[in-house]
Amino acid sequence: MSSLRGKVVLVTGSSSGIGEGIAIHLAKLGCRLALTGRSVDNLNRVCEECIKAGLSGDQVLTIPADINKPDQRRSIIENTISKFGELNVLVNNAGMCHSLKITNITEEKYDELFDTNVKSHVFLTQLALPYLIKVKGNIVNNSSVCGQKSLPDDGVYCMTKASLDMFTQCLALELAPRGVRVNSINPGTIVSNIERRPGGICEDDELYAKFLEIQKGVHPIGRVGEPEDCGEAVAFLASDAASFITGQLLYVDGGRNCVAAGVVTNLKK
Questions:
Q1: Which residue among the candidates 110, 131, 157, 208 is catalytic per the annotation?
Q2: What pLDDT is stored for residue 268 in this prediction?
Q3: Which residues does residue 89 pair with via DSSP β-bridges, in sequence order?
Q4: Which of 23, 102, 172, 209 would you label with 136, given CA atoms 20 to 30 Å apart?
Q5: Known catalytic membership, residue 157
Q6: What are the backbone angles phi and psi of residue 90, rounded to the nearest 5°?
Q7: Which residues of the chain have pLDDT under 70?
C-alpha cells in the first residue's frame, strides 16, 4: 500500500475500537492522520500508538469533537486543512448501537442512532467534499454486516447501517464523474467497545466473554475480528490498488454474511 504514504486521512471515532485499529494500521503505512473522537484522553493514547507505529508527532493531529454537532463537524474539517493543507481520504467510522427491539425503541434513542450512524456522516462528508474532489480522493464508510442482515434485537441499528450502505452506493454514483471513489467496509463482530457502551448488550467482562464465544460460532472462519482486520480493509479500499473499485460493500466478517440471520445477541434473556 505504498500509494498511501504521505496521504492525509481523517478518521472519525478513532479514539477506540475499530477506529483505533484503522488509525494505527494507517500510521504503519505512513499516512498523515487527523484523528477525531469525544475522549481527549483516548485520542492522546491513540496518537501515541500511531507515533510508536512510525509517525512523527507532527504527522498526527488530534481533534476532540462530537460529530453530531454541526459546528464541531465544521471544526474537524477546518482543523485538518489548517494543519495539513489537504485531505485525501475520509474514513467515516464513528458509530453507536442501542440493542433494542423496534417495538421498544424510544424517539430519543431512534434519533440518537440515526444522528450518529447516518446524519453525521452525510454532513461531515459534505464539508469534506471540496477538498476530496480537488485531489480526486476517496471515502471509506464503516458500515456493518447488519446493514444487509436483519437481527431481531437491533432493528433500528440495522436500519441505520442499511441507510449507510445506500449512502455509500448513491454517493459513489454521484461522485464518480468527479474522480472520487466511495466504498464501505461491513464488519461482522469485531473486538471493540461498542457492545460495552451504555445501550450495548454487555455490561461486564463475563457477559462480554460469553458474547464473543457465541459470536465465534456464527462466523464461519471460526473467530471474531480484530480492529486491525478493518484497518487492512480500509487501507486497501483507500489505496491505488482499489482504483477501479467504487460503490462496493466489502464484508470483513469471516463469512458471516453467507449464513442465515437470527444470530443470538441478547444475553440477558
A1: 157
A2: 47
A3: 9, 138
A4: 23
A5: yes
A6: -110, 125
A7: 1, 194-204, 260-269
Asked if 37 and 16 touch (Cβ cutoff 8 Å), the reply is yes
Indicate the CATH number of 2-258 among 3.40.50.720, 3.30.420.40, 2.60.40.1120, 3.30.428.10: 3.40.50.720
d(C-alpha 98, C-alpha 262), whole Å: 17
**Spatial contact of 251 and 177, defined as CB atoms under 8 Å apart:** no
- Cα atoms in the Cβ-side hemisphere of radius 13 Å centred on 208: 13
DSSP-assigned letters across all residues of 199-249: TSS--SHHHHHHHHHHHHTTSTTSS-B-HHHHHHHHHHHHSGGGTT--S-E
* Cβ burial, residue 155 (10 Å; 0-12/13-18/19+): middle
* One-letter amino acid for residue 134 of the chain: K
* Geometric angle at alpha carbon 227, from 187 and 89, rounded to 5°: 80
Q: Which residues on neighbouring strands pair with residue 187, listed in sequence order?
A: 252
Strands (E), the chain: 8-11, 32-37, 60-64, 89-92, 138-142, 181-187, 249-252
- The grid coordinates of residue 80 equal 485538518
CA distances from 247 to 86, 173, 250, 255, 260 (A): 23, 7, 10, 20, 24
Total-model pTM: 0.91
DSSP assignment letter at 95 = -
